[in-house]
Predict the structure of GTPase HflX.
Amino acid sequence: MTSDTPDLADYDGDQDELADRHALRRVAGLSTELQDISEVEYRQLRLERVVLVSVWTSGSQVDADNAMAELKLLSETAGSQVLAALVQRRSTVDPATYIGSGKVAEVKEVVESTGADTVICDGELEAAQLRNLEDRIGVKVIDRTGLILDIFAQHAKSAEGKAQVEMAQLQYLRQRLRGWGGNLSRQAGGRAAGGAGIGGRGPGETKIETDRRRIGTRIAQLRRKLRDMEVTREAKRAERRRHEVPSVAIVGYTNAGKSSLLNRLTGAGVLVENALFATLDPTTRRSETSDGRVFTLTDTVGFVRHLPHDLVEAFRSTLEESVEADLLLHVVDASDPDPQGQIDAVRTVLGEIGAADVPELMVLNKADVADSTMLMALRANYPEAVVVSARTGRGIDALLQRIDERLPRPEVPIDVVIPYERGDLVDRVHKEALIGELEHTEHGTHVVGRVRPDLADELARYV
Ligand SMILES: Nc1nc2c(ncn2[C@@H]2O[C@H](COP(=O)(O)OP(=O)(O)OP(=O)(O)O)[C@@H](O)[C@H]2O)c(=O)[nH]1
Ligand SMILES: [Mg+2]
């Protein structure tokens, strides 16, 4: 595979970064950059010993178990240790306390007996529900959305990624200021005093108003900053479009193996980790189809069920890479207990960002560990899908072949003799054209084939 960008040299760097990331988790305190703004306390939420709680309103027992298993994985990705998980079956969630009020006492007992410091509820809770639960249980309570935002905050690496996550967090926080007021002051107390402070008095209305104003100002700043970054990104995209290099975007559920596939196809050396949301920054590399045509391949942030709306909004500019691609490689973890659920969730997000109409090639990954019955069922549902293993390399050649077939084809026929001093044009022909015949003659390189219109224009004088 070719790559004209820094490739394997990046690999170690990425791994160091992983070590740094873990090291960072153990360091308490705030970065100077963020010091004077109250919402950083929210970002510094330390989720350490947690109890998971979910309300199971519909679907089978297996669905409920899968959802809980995912919440556990998310919590662990955020750096917490899961001490217990409690599921309640009810027809609807309780408007005041999410779980039924009788259950709240039970959760409190579990929290006390296990020594947990945080309760994480599956789903997105109202501010009042969070506040009521905190008051009655006596520890910090967060919801799945807050948890996902926390993971994104830990993983964001580029300036753009950080700004996007911060904006999503602030929007989330702004809607919950009343409910989180107590928390904020508690966290602030915790920062100053180096711990606890549970049950500390909440801030008065004035503090909340000040917080709200500061958040508003910060959001406006971030929005401007993101708009500037978007201009740079757009310029790069325009440059690619001008050269009409076909583009492929890798999308899929988090942990499906998107980065592994990019590495396998291009030797990109992108961080691969058995954790959710290892990738937040899109990486673009060049690759070649089986007949040598160049295309770009972009790795993207993974999707998850009920991806917080604020995050989709914040990541919209990044996700646009997928909207504008010529082809989406939809990577599916065929070894997951519920691949169909993941496929549906991915398609929902694709719909939200306006990418529902981009041609899609389904890639059933992790074939080396997938259950054969599951693989058969998936193949029956998606007969066009390619079965691969990014780990062993199985199916990769077939995948390249299919990418080649699905990419837009150059369509203008040419029959030209390119003089030897125009080696640059011969290079482009090799990279972009579908070559029928190519021979070296006395006057230059004789090529018969098909190219895209822009190259056809440049070759016109050599007919
Ligand atoms: N057995 C097996 N494991 C794989 C395969 N492909 C990826 N994995 C593993 O799956 C995990 C996730 O891989 P990544 O490539 O980081 O997945 P991703 O889709 O980029 O994940 P995020 O960026 O976190 O959304 C890693 O532990 C990989 O080693 C495969 O074909 N077979
Ligand atoms: Mg990844």
Remarks:
- The two ends are 32 Å apart (CA to CA).
